[in-house]
Amino acid sequence: MRGTQQQPHYQALYRACIKEAATAGAALMQAMLARALRELPDKAARIDDVVERNLLLEAVTVLREQQPTLANAFPQTLLAEFAQAIAGGRSTTLGFDSLSLLGDEQLQENADLVRAAKVLEAAVQPQLGNFEAALAAAELTPAGGLHRHPLRPEVYVRSIYRLARQSPVSSAVRRRWLRYLPPLMAPELAEAYAGLAKRFVPKDAALAESDGHVAQDARDRATQLTIRELRKLLSGDPGEGGDEAVVVFADSDFSHTVPAALEMVQDMRKVDQLVQQLRQRQAAMPGRERDTLAAFREALRQEARRPAQVLGLEVVHLMVAHLADDPRLLPAVRHVVRELEPAFLRLALVDPRFFSDREHPARQLLEELTQRSLAWSTADEPGFAIFMDALQQATEALLDTRASGPETFEIALAALQEAWDEAQPKGRRNRERAVRALLRAEQRNLLAERLGQQVLERPDAAGAPPEALAFLTGPWAQVMAQARLADASGAEDPGGYGWVVHSVLWSVQPALAARVASQQRMLKSRIDEGLASIDYMRADAQRWHNLLAALRDLALSSATGNALRAGEPEPAPEKVDTWLAPLEMHESGFVPDASAPPVTGPDTLPPQELEVGAYVDQLGEQWERWQLTWASPHGLLFMFTHSSGTTRSMTRRKLHQMMAQGTLRLVSAHPVVDAALDSVAHAAWRNSL
Fold first, then answer.
1. Does residue 601 form part of some domain?
2. Which of 56, 153, 406, 430 makes an SS bond possible with 120, Cβ 3.0 to 4.6 Å?
3. Last residue of some domain: 392, 423, 454?
């Protein structure tokens, strides 16, 4: 399999280190606060601006008052930020999509956050580089690149920011905490990185120096884009020269033919029909055969008449550069993204904000091709060649057409979606069948849980053995729930299965057993009938019969004073929180829960929650790529789909268990296009300092 494959041993060690780092957060915060209380008053005395000096002194005074509270709260705050980073969570305030929504105060706080992270990272770079090299040696490089690991300095700074926002302090105090505190954490954080590096690599092992931050910094320095310019672009501010009339899509010479083309898309069966259609429309713009990509970019910049057009070209170039370097995309897909840059650049010249509109055909095309490609972890897996064939033909069509409007992207997107969907009819049918099975299972399990609770609340259940209650609240609650869901008459007890609850409870209690002793044959028959209605496994049904019979004998012998028969009953079948019938398990590829209890504790990493659309690698006989394609309405069940169309489902408990064990790892939590645009915003933030 391509890329890093985290071994479960190292993954467990990694998670243990993250939890230890969070636990050590209290000592780290205490050391930072002590240093701040010693050094910041002198720093304030050297500030010429009286207002700023007094504000910093006020921040120090409040810091002294809040010192115990901050030190105690920091580990949990740090743990929450670690968990968000592990889950691939996007920064809600620093991301590309939020730029146009930020107020002046948020802009300033974000700038302080980015500046503090940059200073802290520079202060710990030697130790951080060794730690990241150790992660790479242990094959623990996170999705999106080495610089995205959850223990990076930026996450520590975000933790301080989160803690400051949760504290009852003014915005002026909060800003100065964020501005002055993070660099004072450097000595302890550097020591922590040095210790972590030793945990993963033997002392005599040679480490290659990490170049993740070098590459990131090089990309940031390659552009002069700032947050102010980017916000103007996203808000539609024309900037200088805004009075010049620009007719959007004026360069497109085939708008009048688009409706007919879209009608044809509905009947397309081959992408080569799209190629033939689009090649008939040639626009008089620079061609990729005559010009290098760099020269083509420069030619378009010369054609730009507004600042927004220049900025749009720059954002497209940066976005494509980040996508082309994203290790989650296979080389062939990254090559296609680079090939498509001229088409996106032409579009940016006439529609500079297309990348900020999620509904724009070009943005949708880019997201669709990159996200679908994540279904394969290597180029030789079945189905990838078919996927790439359609994509390459559409790419050729877009490049040869050279039109600058959105119409070509809309046609290409529709044709690609149809071609890809037709290549996997089995996958669509499998998903639909699996979803129906899982919906039935969740509905029945939720009702069974309520019915089981009603059993426990019965007065005659107080003295019943726990084994009998386990049967009635487990498989028998499933029987009663299934009967109610299948009943259309509105009967209070469809199937009469409530009688079994009464009979079982009385038969296993010495004071009541004699009253129902004559009904045992009927009771066994009704239990067999009920368990058969949910297709319950015969072997497990027999084990329940044996156990209930032993409990009845014990109750009767206790009531009459007779000796108990020899022999201990076999144990009951293992209890499961969410039960699926065999057919439901088969149709959805259900993975049963393991018996190991989940680890809990105050320093345990919060469960990593996945959103539909996320890609993960699961370890079976080998690592395999799966996409989370469905989650049940109440969050009990999750379904993953393989590129072959096969489905695999599991409970929330099983999902969290696999993550904790390192046998399921996140590849991409959000669209890679979002990550690329967030990187553009990150570069703009750093350039704005």
1. yes
2. 153
3. 423
Q: What average pLDDT does this structure show over 417-437?
A: 82
One domain for residues 263 and 348:
yes
Statement to judge: residues 338 and 390 lie in one domain: yes
Which helix (DSSP H) or strand (DSSP E) does residue 688 occupy?
A: none
Token pair, residue 340, equals 């498509």
> pLDDT tens for residues 527-536?
999 999 999 9
Amino acid identity, position 210: S
Cβ-Cβ contacts under 8 Å for 573 (sequence gap 6 or more)? 540, 543, 544
Distance CA 577, CA 581 (A): 13
How do strand 615-619 and strand 664-668 relate by DSSP bridges?
A: antiparallel
State how far Cα 217 lies from the chain centre.
26
Q: Residue 595: beta bridge partners?
A: none
Helix axes 307-324, 227-235, angle to 10 degrees: 110
Write out pLDDT tens, residues 57-113: 999 999 999 999 999 999 888 888 887 777 665 555 566 766 666 667 777 777 888
Is 185 found in the same domain as 80?
yes
CB 448 within 8 A of CB 477: yes
Exposure string of 67-87, with b = 16+ CB inside 10 Å and e = fewer, is: beebbebbbbbbbbbbbbbbb
Please check whether residue 679 lies inside any domain of the structure: no
Alpha carbon distance 231, 228 (integer Å): 5
Residues found in the chain: 689
pTM exceeds cut of 0.90? no
| Inside any domain, residue 473 | yes
What span, in angstroms and rounded, lies between the C-alpha atoms of 404 and 254? 10
Selected residue with higher pLDDT from 654 and 302: 654
- If asked whether residues 440 and 553 sit together in one domain, one would say yes
Are 500 and 476 a contacting pair, CB within 8 Å?
yes
Picking from 74, 79, 88, 71, the residue whose alpha carbon sits closest to that of residue 19 is 79
Residue 647 belongs to what H/E stretch?
Answer: strand 647-651
d(CA 249, CA 233): 18
Reported as a single tens digit per residue, the pLDDT across 281-300 is 333 344 444 447 777 777 77
Structure tokens at 193: 């990185």
* 8 Å CB contact between 598 and 653: yes
Residue 295: count of CB within 10 angstroms of its CB? 11
Q: Reduced to 3 states, what is the DSSP secondary structure of residue 666?
A: strand
What pLDDT is attached to residue 677? 86
624 DSSP β-pair partners: 618
**What's the total number of domains in the chain?**
4
Helix (H, G, I), strand (E, B), or coil: what is residue 267?
coil
Domain assignment of residue 62, given as a range: 8-212
The Cα 26–Cα 308 span in angstroms is 47
The crossing angle, in degrees rounded to 10, of helices 331-350 and 307-324 is 170
Query: Residue 81 and residue 175: Cα distance in Å, rounded?
Result: 19
